Amino acid sequence: MTAHQPRTRGRPPAADRAHVTAAALRLLDEAGLDALTMRKLATAVGVQVGTLYGYFPTKRDLLTAMAEAMLNGCRDAAEGAAQPRERVWALAKSLRAALLSHRDGARVYAGTHATGPNTLGLAEALNGALREAGLEASAAMRTALLIIHFTTGHVLEEQATVQPGSELPVEIDGLRQAIRHGDYPYLAEGQDHLTGMDFAGLFDQGLRLLTAEL
């Protein structure tokens, strides 16, 4: 007769957490962040809802794990870049690409503070490139935060514009009419840029401004 084995207490193994996180990212891509619930995730994984809280006590914990998973590989984006400024650009662009790779990726990432190797590795690589560019420690950290916040905010706007069901064409037409019929001469002169869709070009311009002194 086999002796009774006591149940292991504590959180489930890391591999199971990774499986749940991957399932959450698939649901995110299918339906978006607003539709991602613990109940739907439990069904997708094949467990009871209560079991999920053993992996992630709160939904914020789940989002943090998802954000960490999205940044996989970002820290290595600057390999091969010769100059510090080039490495900064490569890292920022890798973050943008990572957030764009999942529906509502920027919304998931915003406000999280993951402590895993993907998130901290990206921050370390970005700070290292900025230090090599000549910035002292506090300036490098502040500039790194500015770049990360700029990238996150840019992708938030980008994804909100192109998400399924977006009313963008109607909204742009209304914006153009408001400018045309109002007293906004500077906006009228540049409205093609104001209502344009060149997100990559606008992102590059922002990076140039943020790194102009490097």
Task: Provide structural commentary.
This protein is mostly helical. Among the domains are: 41 residues, Arc Repressor Mutant, subunit A (Orthogonal Bundle), CATH 1.10.10.60; 105 residues, Tetracycline Repressor, domain 2, CATH 1.10.357.10. It has twelve helices and no strands. Helix 5 packs parallel to helix 8, helix 7 crosses helix 8 and helix 8 packs antiparallel against helix 12. The N terminus is likely disordered.
Oligomer: single chain
E-strand count: 0
Helix-strand makeup class: mainly alpha
Strand content: under 5%
Low-pLDDT segments = 1-8
CATH class bucket of the domain at 71-163 and 200-211: Mainly Alpha
Radius of gyration: 21 Å
CATH superfamily of the domain at 71-163 and 200-211: Tetracycline Repressor, domain 2
Helical run tally: 12
Outline: flat
Order of helices and strands: HHHHHHHHHHHH
CATH topology of the domain at 71-163 and 200-211: Tetracycline Repressor, domain 2
In short:
The protein contains twelve helices and no strands.
Q: What distinguishing features does this structure have?
A:
single chain, Tet_transcr_reg_TetR, disordered N terminus, 214 residues, 12 helices, mainly alpha, Arc Repressor Mutant, subunit A, Tetracycline Repressor, domain 2
Question: How are the elements arranged and paired?
Answer:
Blueprint: H1 14-31, H2 38-45, H3 49-55, H4 59-70, H5 84-100, H6 105-109, H7 117-132, H8 137-162, H9 168-181, H10 185-189, H11 191-194, H12 199-210
Keywords: DNA-binding, Repressor, Transcription, Transcription regulation
Organism: Amycolatopsis umgeniensis
GO biological process, one term: response to antibiotic
